[in-house]
Amino acid sequence: MWHIIQTSTPQLLEAGFKYTIPIAIISFVIGLIIALFTALIRLSSKRGAFLMLKAIFRFYVWLFRSTPLLVQLFIVYFGLPYLKIKGIFPNGIQLNPVIAGIITFSLNTGAYCSETIRASILSIPEGQWEAAYSIGMTKSVVLRRIILPQAIRISLPPLANSFISLVKDTSLAASITIVEMFEVSQQIAAQNYQPLIMYSLVAVYYAVFCTVLTWLQGYLEKVTSRYVTTTR
């Protein structure tokens, strides 16, 4: 068993640092940008044609929260090549597996995180908006300097949980031929016929990665809450 662990560990860690962690980080950053934009659009009080845009983003959030992530990966990687549009995509939309994975993970993360950010913004008392307006601040300035800094602190724990979940969800990328940690463990298990050891080993490494992220989450919570007075 120890021989298997020693020979497998370098391959698993290489896949983890080459694919698992980079895909998770890139997807989460893009997903946060999508989430912030989506939340702000849905919270906007503008009317007219803007209502159609809000409906589109509401549909996007509903769609990605209502369908399994694995199905979304399959649609983007295996399904889009069959979406042939004459003059634009005559051979369908064919994506590199890593790009397909990042696109899917980003859109999925954006849908979930947009609800977190939206709820965090809504949790800020309305009086703060009114107080800022009373001293001549514009809506964009109030949002940037008063509302969003507080919303970030409130949303940090659930957003960190989303990132930790995303790290684990990258194991699904093996289904679209990305050779990340779980895929490597499957390949090694097929060679040494020790699936219990290999799957347990890769589970340990996922747990290590997520534990480090949990510690980082705790540190960020302390930093963002250093000026907040708490009563116990």
Quick rundown:
This is ABC transporter, permease protein. With 232 residues, this protein is mainly alpha-helical.
What's the helix and strand layout?
Elements: H1 2-43, H2 50-66, H3 69-79, H4 97-122, H5 126-134, H6 139-169, H7 181-192, H8 195-224
Helix pairs in contact: 1-4, 1-7, 1-8, 2-4, 3-4, 4-6, 5-6, 6-8, 7-8
Question: Tags for this entry?
Answer:
8 helices; mainly alpha; MetI-like fold; flat; 232 residues; single chain
Describe the structure.
There is one protein chain. The protein is mostly helical. It has one domain: MetI-like (MetI-like fold, Orthogonal Bundle). The chain has 8 helices and no strands. It has helices at residues 2-43, 50-66, 69-79, 97-122, 126-134, 139-169, 181-192, 195-224. Helix 3 (69-79) packs across helix 4. It is flat. This is ABC transporter, permease protein. The chain crosses the membrane at residues 20-41, 62-80, 196-216. It is found in: Cell membrane. Belongs to the binding-protein-dependent transport system permease family. One of its GO terms (cellular component) is ATP-binding cassette (ABC) transporter complex.
